[in-house]
UniProtKB/TrEMBL annotation, chain A:
Lineage: Bacteria, Bacillati, Actinomycetota, Actinomycetes, Streptosporangiales
Ranges for domain ABC transmembrane type-1: 93-289
Transmembrane segments: 99-120, 127-154, 166-185, 228-250, 270-293
Protein name: Peptide/nickel transport system permease protein
GO cellular component annotations of the record: plasma membrane
Signal peptide from the UniProt entry: 1-21
Naturally occurring in which organism (per UniProt): Nonomuraea fuscirosea
Superkingdom field: Bacteria
GO molecular function: dipeptide transmembrane transporter activity
UniProtKB/TrEMBL annotation, chain B:
Pfam families in UniProt: ABC_tran, oligo_HPY
Gene Ontology biological-process annotations: peptide transport
SMART domains registered for this protein in UniProt: AAA
Entry-linked PANTHER family: DIPEPTIDE TRANSPORT ATP-BINDING PROTEIN DPPD, OLIGOPEPTIDE TRANSPORT ATP-BINDING PROTEIN APPD
Protein name stated in the entry: Oligopeptide/dipeptide ABC transporter ATP-binding protein
Compartments where located: Cell membrane
Membrane topology value: Peripheral membrane protein
PROSITE patterns per the UniProt record, alphabetical: ABC_TRANSPORTER_1, ABC_TRANSPORTER_2
Amino acid sequence: MVRKLAGLVATLLATSFVIFAASYAAPGDPVTFLAGGKENLTPEYLAAIRAQYHLDDPFLVQYGRWLGDAVTGDLGRSTQYHDQVSDLMAARLPSTLALVAYASVLFVVFGIALGVLAAVRGGRTDSAVVAGTTFATSVPAFVTATVLISLFGVQLGWFPVMGGGSLWHLTLPAVTLALGALAIISRVTRQSMIEQRELDHVSVARAGGLSERLIVVRHVFRGALGPIVTMCGLVTAGMLAGTVTVETAFGLNGIGSLLVNAINTHDFPVTQAVLLLMVAAYIAVTTAVELLHPLIDPRVRSRA
Amino acid sequence: MLLSVEGLTIEAGGRRPILREVSLSVGRGEIVGLVGESGSGKSTIARSVLRLLPAGARVSGRVAVEGEDVLTMGQGALRDLRASKVSMVYQDPRSSLNPVRRIGDFLTERMVRTLGRPKAEARTRALELLDAVGMRDPGARLRQYPHELSGGMLQRVVIAAALAADPALLLADEATSALDVTTQAETLALLRRVQAERELGMLFITHDLHLAAAFCDRVHVLYAGTVVESRPAKELFADPRHPYTAGLLACTPELGDPRPIRPIPGRPPSLDDAFTGCPFAPRCPEATAACEEEPPRPVAVSGGTAACRLVEA
C-alpha cells in the first residue's frame, strides 16, 4: 500500500516536470503576452515583468518554485484573466465532470449490453454489432457532433444545441463522447465473454443442468468482468483529457475549452494546472480500477 | 437398465466417426470401466450421456437413462436429467470450478438454481455432503475460493457437488488422473465408498487398464471410437483376448516382472485416419492381410465379446 502510494506520488512528480518543461520549451516568449499591447514593449517594462514573474531564474529554480506553490494549493494566477487558476478550474470542472460521467454511464451500459448481445447471439447479430460500433467509433467526434446538432437540435428540436447546465443540455455532447468508446467496450466485452464461455467450468455448470441464461449471467459474464472493468476505467480516464472537441462543438464551458484557450493565449499557469489535473484524474481513475480488481477476482486478493 | 447405450455413432467432420456403433450398459450399483488411449472417444461417450455433444455432430443410435432417450428428450427433461439423475466428475478439479465463486456457491448452485430448493436447506445439504466426502470444517470450506484448496480437496468438492441431487448414475471422466498418487488412492476409495453407500451406477473412464481392472466390475476397451473388447474386469485382466487389450497390459511395467516393457508400436489414430478394416490392424503384431479388408464383428468370448478376426478363428 505504501509502495503503491509512493509510486503514485512519483508518477505525479515526473509528469509535473514534463508538463512544466514542455511549457518552458514552448515557442514564444511569455513576456510579450504578459506585456499586453505593443505600446508596452519597452525594454524597461519587459525587464520589470521578467523580474515580477521570475522569468530570468534558471529553469530548475522556476520549476521548484512552481512545484512548491502547487503543493500548497497555489497554482498561480492566470496571465489572461488574472484570476486564481484554482478558481478558474473550480468554475469549469463541474460541467466537464458531469459530461464525462454522463458519457461513461452511456458507453458502459450500451457498450456492455451490445457486447453481451454479440457474444450470446453470435451470427448476424454479432456481425451487425461489430460493424455498427466500428462505424460509430470511426466517425470523428466533430462530425458526430455536427450531425447530432443538425438532426436532434435543429431539425427535430428535441435538445438544445449550445451551452450547459442541465442533463438536457449535456445529452448530445455525452452521446457524441460515448459513441467513440462504444466499439472498444463492446469488443472487449464480446471477446472476454467468448473466452470465458470456452472454459471447462462453464460446461460443468451446463452439465449440472443450469439454464443458459443463468450460465451467461453467473459464469460467463461474471468471469469476463475483469477486462471489462479495466477497459471502462481506462476509457473514462482517457475521456477526462479528451473533451476538448465536444466542448468546443457544443459551446460548453469546461476544462477542455479552458485548456485550448489557455494554450492559444500562452497562459502558462492555466495550461500547466489543467494538464496536471488531467494527469491526476487519469491516475485516480486507474488506481480506483486497480483497487476494484480484488473485489472482482478473489485470486488477486490472496496474492496481495 | 440404468444406462444403456445402443449403436451410438457420432460423426463430427473427421474422416472417421468419433464413435462407431458403441453399445454398453450400466446397471444400478455397478461400476463399468471405459478404457482407451486419448482420442479413443471415451469422454465423448460420457458427455453424450448428458447430451453435451460436439458442435455440428451427427448422432445416431440411442442413449437411454432409466429407459428415457437422452438424445431426443425435450429441454426441460434434459435439464432435469443433468441436474438430478446423472452427475459427472471431471479430470481436472481446478478447471471444473468457477475461480471467482465460492465453494458454497458451487455446491448449492444446482440445488438452488435448477431444482429450486430453499437456500438454507441447500446450505445444510452442502455441509452434509462435505462431511460425507471427508472434508474437515465444512462450514469454513463453504466460504473459501477454489484457489485456496488443493487439487485433492477440490476433487472431493466436485464429488460432493455431484452427489448433491442424489443422482442414480455417476460419470467419472478420468476423475483421478490429474491427482497425486496418494490423493488418487484417497479419491478412488471415496468414489468406491459413495458408490457402494448409495448404490450408484458408475461409468469409470480411465486410460489405465490396470486401474480399471482393479476398480470396475466390467470393462470396455475402446479403440478409435469402437469397443474392441468388453469383459468382466478379472477375466479381461487375466486373459485378454483382443491383441490391443493384451498390448495395453504389456506396456505397463510391473514389479517383479522380468519381461521387458513392450510399448504398442505406432500412434493412436486421429480423426483423419479412416479404416476399411480393423482400425488396430496397422499396429497389431498379429495382423494379417485379411484384417485390413473389413471391420471385425464382435464375437462372443468367455464373459463378453471381442472384436477381432483372430479370436473368431
